[in-house]
Specification:
Thioredoxin domain-containing protein, alpha/beta, Thioredoxin_domain, flavin-dependent sulfhydryl oxidase activity, Thioredoxin_CS, Glutaredoxin, protein disulfide isomerase activity, 7 strands
Length: 256
């Protein structure tokens, strides 16, 4: 194949990969392909772990409420979307700067993502009027808890990021919002790290999950105990009734 043929093939491939995917509104009971009720755990050998914090309808408020970061970026995506898959490495470059114990600039921006292809997140994605994937939002972390976002909404502190196609452009956009001059190859300095007492967002998410599991187990124990108490009460009442009937028969027999 000639050089020009290779170039033409590459250009054709690039044009076939969309920059975004349109979101189809899916009801919570839908069984459409690509919609799952539980997150998928995918392990890739040889690749670093994701730094962006995975959020869902269960831990969304808790993680954003507990983060020490002043701001948050929330990426709404769908795991089936080709544009989202292509964008993930770009987003992860920025997440490694701001998230986790090895972050270069921790405690400033929390980089998160929500998979709208999961049924559990349908209402959450509707709350932010997600129309396409990936769709990025920026704002103070507390604003994401207090309210959602609508296209015609005025005076909202949550903003749609309109220039984040690459890691460099997204970082430049963030720099403009907070007056910083960060670059992707910034080096880590220990003095920039906040106090070690500050919880990592992933630890918060895990803690929320563990509390939910423990709470469910406690309720099961309580219900089982109540059921045993009710059964014992019924047996006691039945025994008492049997004794009363026996005494009545004994009295009648004695009188006869």
């Amino acid at each position: 194949m000639s050089l020009m043929s290779w170039i033409a093939a590459i250009l054709l491939f690039v044009n076939l990969v969309p920059l975004s995917c349109q979101r189809a509104t899916v009801s919570s009971s839908s069984s459409a392909v690509g919609v799952h009720s539980t997150p998928r755990a995918v392990k890739t050998i040889g690749l670093p772990a994701d730094c962006a914090v995975e959020l869902n309808a269960t831990n969304f408020d808790a993680v954003l409420r507990g983060t020490p970061a002043t701001y948050a970026v929330v990426e709404f995506f769908a795991h089936w979307c080709p544009a989202c898959r292509n964008y993930k490495p770009q987003y992860e470059k920025l997440a490694r700067i701001f998230n986790g114990p090895d972050a270069v600039h921790p405690g400033i921006v929390l980089m998160t993502r929500v998979d709208c292809a999961l049924t559990i997140n349908n209402k959450l994605c509707d709350k932010f009027s997600v129309s396409h994937y990936p769709m990025l939002f920026w704002g103070p972390h507390s604003e994401f808890i207090a309210a959602g976002w609508e296209p015609q909404q005025e005076k909202s502190k949550i903003r749609v990021i309109d220039d984040g196609r690459t890691a460099e452009r997204l970082l430049n956009w963030i720099n403009k919002q907070i007056g910083s001059t960060y670059v992707l190859d910034d080096e880590k300095f220990e003095k920039e790290h906040p106090s070690s007492s500050i919880s990592d967002p992933e630890q918060i998410a895990q803690a929320v999950y563990e509390v939910e599991v423990a709470t469910s187990a406690v309720f099961d124990i309580i219900l089982e105990h109540k059921a045993k108490e009710a059964a014992a009460t019924r047996e006691e009442a039945e025994d008492k009734q049997h004794v009363e009937v026996w005494l009545q028969k004994a009295v009648v027999a004695a009188e006869e």
